[in-house]
Write a structure and sequence with these properties.
This protein is an alpha/beta fold. Helices cover 38% and strands 18% of the residues.
Length: 281
């Protein structure tokens, strides 16, 4: 059959086969990429599997398949990612928001009092700050980001989602933590060891290294931000950080050393220690 006569169903099967060896979500990835180049929703693929796909569209689709098979995140290829109830623009300047980070949003919402203030350090795409803002319009939310390219993505998301009350500012936790007090300070800081095997097996190579790498033990960023963040917490306010699954004990120790109380670590849906919280006395 000629390329011009290739149907949606055939193209979809080709995509699944092309990604089967490299992606744990081969079917979903193929569906999303094919729907993207066709400019239709995924439901269209199943409603009209016999419809022909133009040759130029097949070429564009195969280009995306090749990039996905090489490890490039589907979110970068689509330039968007779903996070809680938000559709976020993402680019290689920011991390792709993970489902695990939704737990950070849930804890922030649980700890944030009515009309309270929240600071997010290292907002990236704006996922956490904007998700909290969308569910708690009464809150006063500030988010910092040291990368100008990432900050531009966060601002684009803020504008498109109409969450313009969120303040986005340039700053790092060493020198740019805004003056508080904040009832909640949340962050998903870099926490990957620079010697982690993911750097060489392609698992992390497409995402911004500065948003991931945190020294030989993966704790450099957390050590750096703890003191300035704790200083800007309100009395009784909560600091909460996402971290690696094997770092819970170490992070609890750092929280305690910083003078925080009621320190505890929450597990993600896989049962792994993923998020540590502590309260300022």
């Amino acid at each position: 059959m000629s390329e011009a006569g290739r149907s949606i169903g055939q193209a979809l099967r080709e995509g699944i086969d092309a990604l089967r060896a490299s992606s744990a979500s081969a079917r979903l990835d193929a569906e999303l990429l094919l729907a993207e180049v066709l400019g239709v929703g995924r439901s269209h693929l199943f409603a009209f599997p016999e419809r022909p796909v133009p040759t130029a569209t097949i070429d564009a689709y195969r280009n995306l398949l090749t990039r996905r098979a090489a490890g490039e995140p589907a979110a970068y290829l689509l330039r968007r990612c779903e996070f809680r109830d938000l559709s976020l623009t993402v680019t290689p300047a920011v991390l792709v928001p993970r489902p695990e980070t939704e737990h950070l949003v849930e804890q922030a919402l649980a700890c944030l009092p009515a009309g309270g203030s929240l600071l997010e350090l290292g907002t990236g795409s704006g996922a956490v700050a904007l998700a909290v803002a969308s569910e708690r319009p009464d809150a006063r939310i500030t988010a910092t980001e040291r990368s100008e390219a990432a900050l531009a993505v966060a601002r684009e998301n803020r504008q498109r989602l109409g969450l313009t009350s969120v303040e986005l500012i340039a700053g790092d936790w060493d020198e740019g933590v805004p003056a508080g007090p904040f009832q909640v300070i949340a962050s998903n800081p870099p926490y990957v060891e620079t010697t982690a095997p993911e750097w060489t097996n392609g698992g992390l190579g497409h995402e911004p290294r500065e948003a991931l790498a945190a020294g030989c033990d993966g704790l450099a960023a957390i050590r750096s931000l703890l003191a300035p963040a704790a200083e800007e917490l309100a009395r009784g306010g909560w600091l909460m950080l996402e971290h690696g699954a094997a770092q819970g004990e170490a992070v609890r120790g750092l929280f305690a050393a910083a003078g925080l109380e009621q320190v505890r670590t929450e597990r993600d849906l896989a049962g792994l220690e993923r998020l540590t919280l502590g309260r300022r006395p």
